[in-house]
Specification:
The protein has about 575 residues and is α/β, with parallel strands linked by helices. About 40% of the residues lie in helices and about 15% in strands.
Length: about 575
């Protein structure tokens, strides 16, 4: 290309994205200088080069979750784009603000076997909020700014901008400075808020469930205040974890599959449920007996969420923080601050929390179980660390409070309802890059770690100092567990070849340890802290037994396998 970078359309793309509020471009370099090259010279943009587009999408998720800003994924037409789709499926499930920028082959090649041509919009449409093909340079800055606007507003999500080859070879449009795209916030209808407040104050046992949609709104303090006014047990979904300090007197951990007994009793006995910023996906409903018979007050910024998983008595459309504040004010107007019923609920919640702690923080004996390993990890990295999780059988222990207890300053990053295997390591790379001031730790199984291994060289190059706890059952634990429940053969779920991951970690300058006792793990975690200070990756492997099954999973399956569990 004869144009200088400052004259090229890619420079306009990078500048527009930076002005709009994006701060990261993730991807692989293209044959010719492209968006990543332009981003390197654009103030306000950071470039993250990865080895795999699938990993790049997950890194974008992790970075956006910690930075609070939309991330850009740069790909190209054909296999580059297709390889990113698994990660984009997870981004869509999570509602992560990811702006995908891709190229389109020359128009003369479409329908005539053009090299690497594919219908990218059709492939991605089920995953995206909006897609647009830029065929005229005059559309370029408009399309990019609209994409960022849609990525962060309403229910956040994935957007796609294709740029035709002809646009990239035409004279660049003028780059005009513009203000950042703002996240629009709006409150709910006042009369509906009052109606919801009457239901909540009149409830025998109201329960609050806070989801991942509360995070971009910064709704943690407002949700906490509302729960305190109601004296209501406060749960989160997996995506909502980190909104409130789990040592708060009303905090009862997670809902659904990840509920730690005896907190499930509170969910079962609740008569009114206030769900804020959650779609109430299947895992949030697993094992929650009678949810469909309870009165639901549902708060969300996206109207499409309502009447999906459950029928709300009151649907409140608006920003999670603003609506929680409205509800709190309405509750104060409806009821006295202290009531006998509220005091009784607080006492009951305290008893439940004591029961959870008594059953799930005691020493497990001489064996190094998963709960013990997780407690030692948290003691080492503190409750304010960035915690990245997979969704394998044994690492689900990490979703159970108080086995792991996170503070309201912690960042917790989990896969969404798709729970792709291999999400964790690349997501941890993006998260650690977004905030180097705190430790970033990943908990995953051996199968997930192997599937995400392409992100390991990137972590090394960036000196991120990740700490990875690998729970090793020599295979795929969840399919093995479900097959055992059904009496089916599990041979295909077991790895037989020797593990190669430790050698790969050491070859990249990282530390490895294999621990079978608490003393060995404590020593390895001390070494990991030193390695973190040096920017080196540490991978600690703990062999686990097949029967070391999380209590929430055991509770749900003892009641009968959930629909679709065999998948």
């Amino acid at each position: 290309m004869s144009a200088t970078p400052e004259q090229h359309p890619w420079h306009v793309v990078a500048g527009t994205l930076a002005d709009a509020g994006c701060d990261l471009v993730v991807g692989l370099p293209s044959d010719e200088p492209g968006l990543m090259d332009a981003a390197r010279t654009t103030p306000g943009l950071r470039v993250l080069g990865v080895r795999d587009q699938r990993a790049g999408a997950c890194a974008a998720i992790g970075h956006a979750a910690v930075s609070g800003r939309p991330a850009v994924l740069a790909v190209n037409s054909g296999p580059s784009f297709a390889n990113a789709l698994t990660g984009l499926l997870e981004a869509s499930s999570l509602g992560a603000p990811v702006v995908v920028v891709t190229t389109r082959v020359p128009a003369l090649g479409i329908g005539r076997g053009g090299f690497q041509h594919t219908d990218q919009a059709a492939m991605a449409r089920p995953l995206t909020k909006w897609d647009f093909l830029v065929e005229d340079p005059r559309q370029l800055t408009w399309a990019l700014r609209r994409a960022v606007h849609l990525a962060v507003n309403g229910g956040p999500g994935v957007v796609l901008v294709e740029i035709a080859d002809e646009v990239l070879r035409a004279p660049a449009p003028e780059l005009r400075p513009a203000p950042p795209v703002r996240r629009l916030r709006f409150a709910a209808d006042a009369e509906e808020v009052r109606r919801a407040a009457r239901l909540l104050t009149g409830a025998r046992l109201p329960v609050v469930v806070a989801g991942g949609g509360c995070k971009p709104a910064g709704a943690g303090p407002a949700v906490r205040r509302l729960a305190e006014l109601l004296a209501a047990p406060l749960f989160t979904t997996a995506a909502g974890r980190g909104l409130v300090d789990e040592e708060h007197p009303l905090a009862c951990g997670l809902v659904g599959l990840y509920t730690t007994p005896p907190a499930d009793r509170l969910l079962r006995e609740a008569d009114v449920v206030l769900a804020i910023g959650s779609r109430l996906e299947e895992t949030a409903r697993m094992g929650w007996d009678g949810l469909e018979d309870k009165t639901l007050v549902h708060v969300d910024v996206d109207p499409a969420v309502f009447h999906t998983a459950a029928e709300p008595e009151v649907a409140l459309l608006g920003d999670a923080a603003l609506v929680a504040g409205q509800l709190a004010d309405a509750v104060v107007a409806e009821a006295p601050a202290v009531t006998a019923a509220g005091a009784a609920r607080r006492a009951d919640t305290a008893a439940v929390r004591a029961g959870m702690r008594a059953h799930h923080t005691a020493a497990d004996g001489p064996d190094l179980t998963v709960p013990t390993a997780l407690r030692l990890l948290q003691e080492s990295v503190t409750r304010g660390a960035t915690l990245v999780q997979e969704n394998g059988l044994h690492d689900m222990w990490g979703y159970h409070h108080p086995v792991v207890s996170v503070g309201d300053g912690a960042r917790v990053i989990t896969p969404g309802e798709q729970t792709m295997v291999g999400f964790g390591l690349p997501a941890a790379v993006g998260a650690a890059l977004a905030d180097r001031t705190r430790r970033t730790v990943l908990v995953c199984g051996d199968g997930a770690f192997e599937m995400g291994l392409a992100a390991l060289p990137t972590a090394t190059e960036l000196n991120l100092g990740l700490t990875v706890l690998v729970l090793d059952n020599r295979g795929y634990g969840w399919p093995r567990f479900v097959r055992a429940e059904e009496g089916a053969p599990d041979t295909l779920t077991r790895f037989t070849a020797p593990a190669h991951t430790d050698a790969a970690v050491r070859a990249l300058g990282g530390l490895t340890a294999r621990c079978t006792t608490t003393a060995e793990l404590a020593a390895a975690l001390d070494d990991a802290a030193k390695a973190h200070a040096e920017g080196r990756t540490t991978v600690i492997t703990v062999p686990v037994r097949d029967d070391d099954v999380p209590v929430g999973v055991r509770r749900v399956f003892d009641a009968g396998p959930p629909a679709g569990a065999a998948a």
